[in-house]
Amino acid sequence: MENRPVLIYADAVTPRLKYAVRLLLETVLRIPSGITADREEFARYEGPKISYGKEKFAQAFHIIPSGLLSETGLRNFLPVADVVEGMPVLFPAKDADGCFDVFSAAFYLVTRYEEYLAFHPDQHGRFPATESMLYRQGWLGRPLVNEWALWLASKLASVFPDFSFNEPPYQCIPTIDVDSAFAYCHKGFFRNLGGAVRDVFLNRKPGLSERIACLTGKKEDPFYTFEWIHQIHSRFRISARWFFLLGRYGRYDKNISPVHPAMQKILQDCAANGSVGIHPSYHSFGSEQKMRREKELAESVLRQSVTMSRQHFLRMRFPETFRNLIRIGIREDYSLGYSTHPGFRAGITTPFLFYDLLREETTGLMLYPFAFMDRTFYGPDGKVTEKAAEIAGNIIQSVQRVKGTLIFIFHNETFAGPGKEWRDFYQKILALAINPSNDQASGT
Fold it and tell me: What does the pLDDT read at residue 194?
């Protein structure tokens, strides 16, 4: 019975059910699946099968639906949360082989259902981690959808002794955001003059001295850490995915122009050492036209198609942001996570297709959720917080346990300055992320 598809019976085969089944079985577990509303076909099938309905079938694993996957549109509700068999669950159910509706639970988290509803945004219009159900339940640090998928596989194995599957491979994808390629150099006379005036006014003598040294060629710009990053990735035999801010100058968009030769060289070097995507500017939020322009700028410099993106400041709105990305030709987005809290915004650590809840359709846009970023671990003095290694280590190990895809974010300027602290921290993260047997990064 090895490698036989799992067949699911449902009274009605809806777009939501199709998505949830494929997500858990095919995307996470890499098990082929099928869905039918034909009772006779289901009864004849001799492979592993799940009855998804009120009626329990003989020789089938039974899950009672919550009703969410039969609905269309949105309603303002919170699913019931519980802990069953020591596992956090949503939509608990009695009198079934499955103690909860695993398909509805996964669908609710991964589609970001709650982010379509009214919420209290932060100062940048973002959905705060503290508003999320996972945070309020204390479950944000667990890749629950992956855990649920493995739970389902174990239940199927207990009902169908010949059932087996190949565990998906664990992966690590480091990503680097380039908001400011340089602290001082190539920013022009007026921007540097304004910066120097601020240094004097705020009595930042070290900053003024460093600015002058960099502009006169006596010192390398502190934000220019690209060669060091490339060397580290080469040493660990891993390549990064880079996201460049290419929007026009503004309060939150402070990179140098993408047409500047220095910026073009960095873009080309990063593409040669990894892959490059856009980092749609703060100013482009909500504007398909501005996002398209920034994508075309990147493509003109690299002379190749650009299909990856991550939102600057992680500003996104469901579903508009993702519809815009699809329209401009983006195939992969890496924005799903929180800058303030480590963990799993969608409860999952495997890339998955974006489902548009308002159109009730599965799109071709792949979402790559990240688990943590450098900003999360910034202390008041700009140094790594005391428990950063322990927290990051726990997150990394939780991804490795479920054979997920670990994605994290750092910035080139994070590694600036004379101190080695952030550089050491990054190397510890890579050591643990790439070699699960290495315990030094977890603080143990």
Answer: 54
